[in-house]
Amino acid sequence: MITKIFYNHSCNICRAEIDHYKKIAKDQFDFIDITDNEMAKIQTKSNDRQLLRRMHVIENGQLFSGARAFLIVWSKIPRYRILSKLFGLPIIFLVFHYTYEVVAYFLFLKNKGQLTNLK
């Protein structure tokens, strides 16, 4: 079963990150742009704000978001597996989680006007 990554293609930073993953592991993932995407809302059981706020991943039918989603993605890419293990350690994950949340919040503020029903 292919892991699904839900991301905001209209965000320059998000798009750059995903484009990098596409280059090195395109067969590992199904990349889904959340911008004005009703199916993404249905599949994740999330609204536009929730989808825009964090990256989401569905693996084996289970939804992950935020820092945990990155760990899932990294664990599937050989050159990033070590990051998945390192950032998955309890204390490091805690720092990673809160750092991600701060960065993601500012990206959300920067990009929230890009979805038509958030304007």
Q: What's the quick description here?
A:
The protein has 119 residues and is of the alpha+beta class. The chain is 55% helix and 15% strand. Helix 4 (67-76) packs antiparallel against helix 5.
Topology record:
Blueprint: E1 3-7, H1 12-25, E2 29-33, H2 38-44, H3 48-53, E3 56-59, E4 62-65, H4 67-76, H5 81-87, H6 90-111
Parallel strand pairs: 1-2
Antiparallel strand pairs: 1-3, 3-4
Helix pairs in contact: 4-5
What are the defining features of this structure?
single chain, 119 residues, alpha+beta
* Distance separating the two termini: 36 Å
Rg value: 14 Å
* Contiguous helical run count: 6
Q: Please indicate the count of domains.
A: 1
Largest sheet: 4 strands, mixed
Question: Portion of residues in helices?
Answer: 55-70%
Helix/strand/pairing category: alpha+beta
Question: Which range does the strand content fall in?
Answer: 15-25%
Low-pLDDT stretches: none
Placed side by side, the strands forming the largest sheet appear as 2-1-3-4
Order of helices and strands: EHEHHEEHHH
Shape: globular
Oligomer: single chain
Q: Residue-averaged pLDDT, rounded?
A: 93
Number of strands: 4
